[in-house]
Structures are given as C-alpha cells and as structure tokens.
Amino acid sequence: MLPWWFLSNEIVRRPGRALLTFSSVAIGVATVLAISISITTTRSSLDQMYQTLAGRAALEVRADGTDSFDSSVLKDVQNTPGVEAAVPLLQRRTILIHESRRFTFLVLGIDPRREPQARDYVFEEGKSFPGDDQILLEAGFAKSLGIRVGDSVLLYTRRRPHRFQVSGLLAPRGAAAFQGGSVLFMSLPTAQYWFRAPDQLSTIHIVLDKGASQEQVQKDLAGRLPKGFSVDPPAARTEMARETLFTSEQGLNMAATLSVVAAVFIVLNSFFMNLTERRRQLSTLRSIGATRSQIVRLVLREGVLFGVVGTALGILVGIGCAMLLMRVMEHIYQTTLPVVQLDVASLVKVAVLGPALSLVAVILPAWAAMRITPLEGMRPVPIDAADRRGHTSIWIAAILTIVGLGGSFFLYHEILPAAAAPAVVATSLAGMSLLIPWILTAIVWLISGLFQQQSGANLFLACRQILRQRTRSSLTAGVLFVAVVMSVGMGNSVLNSTQDIRQWVDRAIIGDFLVRTTMMFDLTSGESPALTDGILNEVRQIPGITSVEPWTFTSGKAEDQLVMVVARAFPPDAPLSLDLYQGDPADVRSGLARGDAVISTVLARRLKKKVGDTITLSTKEGPRKLTIAGTVDDYIMNGTVIYLQDATAKKLFGLNEISALLIRVDPNRKAEVAAALRKLCEKTGLLLSSTADLTRMIESLISGFNATMWGMLVIGFVVAAFGMVNTLTMNVLEQTRELGLLRVVGMSRGQIRKYVVAQAAVMGIVGLLPGAAMGELVAFIVNRVSDTVTGHPVDFDLRPEVIVGCISFGLVLTIAASFLPATRAARLLIGQAIQYE
To answer: What helix, strand, coil percent values describe the chain, rounded to 5?
Structure first.
C-alpha cells in the first residue's frame, strides 16, 4: 500500500487547489445542512410546541370553523368511557404593556382544579394558581422584562385595557415553555369575562385512563359530540402551519440540489487537474512496481480525505447559515421559531453526503489514473481522457436527458410526487452537462472560424489549447454552465413569482388603510385576534371615510383540508378586490350574495374542483355543501383560503367578531383621516397601516428573499471563478515551454496576457450560452411544476434582463479570474520557460 504522506505532500505542494476542493465540498455540505436543519427545526418546533401545551393529553376536542365553543360539551367528554380527565382551555391573544413597551402574549385560560391532571407547573416564585385579576408568567421571560411577583401589567382585552397582578412565576417547563415563554396564564372564568367569551372554550384536552384505547375513545367521542366537532391528537394542529412551509421547502431543496451538482463539478475538475499534474509521479510509481489497484486506492483515499475535511468545514458553515436562514423564515412567516438545534438525522445525512460526493467525483479520475501507463506518463502533453471515451458519454447524456425530461412530464401531470422535482432537474442538468465536450468543440471551431482574422494568433492558439485538454476545459465550462443554469432558472422563476405577488396585492387589497390588532392570523393555532367592541362604529363616524369593509378570519376544514375562512362584506359599490382566476366578477359577486364560496387556486388544485362544483365545509352545525362561484390566486396562508360573504360566514360559523377593517377614504381628505385613525388606534391599542405601508412591507419581504436567493447564486459564480483560475493556471504550467518559444519568436507580454484571457473568454462563452438556454428550460419546468404542485398559476415570462445580466456577470467574473494566470504567464522568463519540463 502506498503511504499516506503522498497525500499530505500533494496538499502542501498545491494548497490553493486543495483549498478549492475542500471549499467545494464544504459549500455543498453547508447548503444541504443549513436547509435540512432549518426545515427539520421548524417542523419539529411545531410538534414540540403543541406537545408541551397538550401535556399528558392524548386527544383534544375542537369545534370546526370557529376558535371557541360552548362549555356544555365538557360534561359529555368527561363521562365518555376511557377518559380519565377532560381539561378545558381558552386561548386568546393579547398585548402586554410594561414600562411603555408592548409585547405579544398568548393567554391561556385554565381551570386550576383540573389543570394538574394534564400539565405540570413548577413555581419559581409564588405558590398558587391565579385568582381573579391575577396572572402567571414564565420566569425567564418575566425577568427579561423586569417583571416580578406582585407587579401589575396592563393587558389589552376585548372589553377594555385592564391591569392584572402577577401572582407567580413558572419554570420554563411544559405549557410555560410554549412559544418560547411568551405565554401567560389566568383562571378560566377571568379569561372568559375579559375576552368576552362567556361559557366558551377553545379546546378540551383529554387524558386517557391507563389501558384505554385511543382509537376507541376517539370513536366514542365522535358519536357523543354534536355536529361540527372534531376529535384529533394534538399534533394534528400543526398541519396548517406546515402547509405554509411547503413552497419554501421545495425552493430550498431545489437550491440545495443544484449546489451539490455544482460542487461535484468543482471537485471533479480539481481531481482531474491534480491527476494531470501528477501523471509523471504516478507513472514513476507504476515503473517501480505500484499496481493499478494501488494507484486507484491512492486517488480514492485522497477523495475521502478531501470529503471528510470538506464535510467538517461544511458542518461548521452550515450551522451558521441555518441560524441565518431560520431568522429569515421567522421574519417571513411572522412567527417565533426556536433557536437552531442540531438533529442527528441531518448530521448523519451530511456526514455521508460529503465523502460520498467526493467519491462520486473521484471515480472518473481514479479510473483514468489506473489506465496511465509508465510510457504515457512521460509524455510532455497527456492524452485527453475525452479522446478515449468515444461516444459512450453521448449515450449516457441522452439517457439522462430523456429521463429528466420524462420526469418533468410526469411531474407536470402529477404522476410523480413534488419531492421528486429536485432529482428530476438534477438528472436533466447532468445529462446536458455531459454534452458540454461536444458543445465546446463546436463553439470553439465556430469562434475560431468567425473571429480568427480579427483576433490573429491569440484566439487561434487559445482555441487549440482548449481542445488539447477538452476534458479539463469542459469541466471548467461545466461549472459555469451549472452556475448560469441556477442563476437564470431560479432568477427567472423568482422574478415571475414576485411579479405575481405584486399583482395579487394590487388586485386583492384595494383600499387606503387597514386597522387591525398588532397580531395577525396565528399560523400555528389558527386563531385570529379580534378588534374591540365598538371600533367599527367609531371608524365609520370619522369624516372623510367613504367605506369600511370588515374582515374576519377563522380556521376551518374543507373536505379534510385545513383552510382559512375569510369573511368579507363585498359592498356592491366597491371593487370586488379579488384576484380572480376563474369566474366572471358579476357572477362571483352575485354568487357570494347567495351563499356560494370563492376558493383559492391552491384548494381547487388539491381538491380537484372547478367553478360550479360543490365543496364540503365543516361548520359548527356539521358539514355544509357550498357551490364554488369562482377561484382566486391568493397568497394568504399559502393559498389555502375560502372567501365567504360575511352574512354566510356568520350563519355557518357564528362569527360575530371582526379581525380587521379595510378602509377607503376621500382622496382629498386622506391626511385628515389618517390623523384621526392614528389617534383612535393609539387610544385602543390597534395598529394602523396604509396600503402603501403594506405594499412596502411586502416589497421588503420580497427584497429580502431576492437578496438571499441572488446571494446564493453569486456564490455559485464565485466558485466557478475559482475553478477558472485553477484551469488556466494548469494550462499555463503545461504551456510554459510553448509560451517561452512564443516569446522568442516575438510575442510580447501583452499578447501573452491576451492569449490566456482569450482562453478564459472562450470557455466562458461555452459554459454561459448553453447554460442560459438550459436555465430558461429549467425556469419553464419549475414554473409548470410549481403550478401543479402549489396551485399558484404564475404566468411564465421570458426575462431577457436575467439572461443578459447573468451572462454579462459570468463573463466579467471569468475574465477577471484569468488575470492572475495571465499575469503569471506574462512574467515567465524566456530562458527558464524553454528549459521547463
């Protein structure tokens, strides 16, 4: 066996190439790890939040289509065989004011007598459950706010702002740890009074007798409870929040897949260049007795070493990226997510991925190294591996391309699951990448023929050198190819999607101001905070307001699909303000007045519904069939939305509260109305937003997402630039004697620089032009697949600015990367260059 010092010697001799290889593996690993940790942490946090809230409860009872129900059902639940305890709970949102600072809290109204049967409470200070006008807080959160036992805090309730005394501080365990401690407890009667929910509950948590069958108890409860109630495990409530993550997960997984493909190209390129430079060393080893298998093991061990070290670096970088990505997702989804926690599954996945990635990339170089003969290794210029393979790679490329395009067809027709989309794109990309050597040959000859007279010998010599090492040149162009495919494909898709969101805002939110609480619809609980009583009349009395449209949000279920129901007035004298996809506006308006529903395109796709069909909606009185009057493209709650006329929603769900007010004003009195609304909102603790503010907020989110995406794409180009530096440096080393002879026959240092830069420009064109075409194909596939998968019908528009921008940026970066090798070539001393071996 060949000793390990061979490997360390090569790393010391070529630290730049080793660093490039390490970093390539690290980038792929870091991207996959960051995305995996972010998705896993977000999903598991939802489960953990409700497990801590549910405590020992195995089931929970909730009312369909409303956030509360009458407490009379508690007796029926408690008397069901197999039920040890039925623990009632009322959930509401509030704003806590302390020392002029506002904080959002979840209020849990609990029954102190029953509560210990379901959940554990450990007091750090204070010893009793709250009495009238008293609350409990989580100790860590309270101390961070400077709140102690005995202090009073101001809470905004649905009656009026009221002061409550802090009677105890709880250790951060169980329900007290829910939502990171931003939860407060008060007695159930107190919560029912101050939040105007007399004899109302949000849920009943059920603790089972020992040995009781959960399935049997669930079945018995379903038979005992009135229509409109559901009995499910507590974890089922996370499904709605998970729906909001679906689209982002698919985009992130796609980016991770493309990053891994780019990393494979970089590592493969590095190993092939390493092999070319060491061919004499390997031939010498063969001459003194080293076998082919020993040479292969040497190269494979090197691949494993690079993979292990790159994986270690990638894990460190990936953890940092995951923290950043979690904060971005937290901002986008307007919810509190936990601190990143490493999970074993993600670490195991990337621990295998890194070395496996390197092994995959080193297989071809290892095979080529095994075939090097002692005589061949002594050649001044090695035989290119591409010349040996013949047309084998064409067949492989054709197969991969056909499989990729076939997979796209199956995705479009929903035969393959959405999770297969990254693999399909990667397969298509790999197939096209294998065609690059032949594309390179065609483009090089075309460029040489078209511009030889204008550019002279520089371009001719550059093209000849590129074709002499077609494999190496193809791999470098392949990295550029992958980078521009990622940039054009993802960039085109992102711009089309953001344009669709902007159009939705313009069409769906037609008004001047929005009045709401400081808390929007809760993604995790499905609860929508209500405005205080009387606010609607106070707003209507402000001079200059032309119309006020109340909106009410609530969670519901449509044919086992969790949805958000939006109840609106749809006044006849105002625009419909829906981004209609199917349906005539006049017919939709009259249908809503009859009690029909308008559903999102996402729901229409998932439930296979169209205009004129019926949809079954779970209500407090049982299932109700509603006719679909139209479909809309909508982005609220990831598009799982049903719109109803407010009178219909009140009848079906008993919705008597208002979640937000959309206000239209006289354009000539806008400043006056804004001042009056601001004063009213300050008095009542509400939030006033103009539609311009809302638009700016959405634009800020879009800009943040775009910046993150473009940042990832720029990294791809930077990695490609490192590959270009390596390739050109290797070319310069191999041409050292030739460059010396060119200097002897009169070529100047400037011409030498142009010669090397010309090589970079040609390889850039070879990678960038086909990559731009493939990128548009990827963008079209992503667009069609996204329509099928997400249900958002986004128009596909060709974006010339993306193509021109990516090609220009890639070409500038490529030429910039050639300056260092070009300078090195120009500084060669003629005498030393001629004697170079």
So the answer is: 60, 15, 25
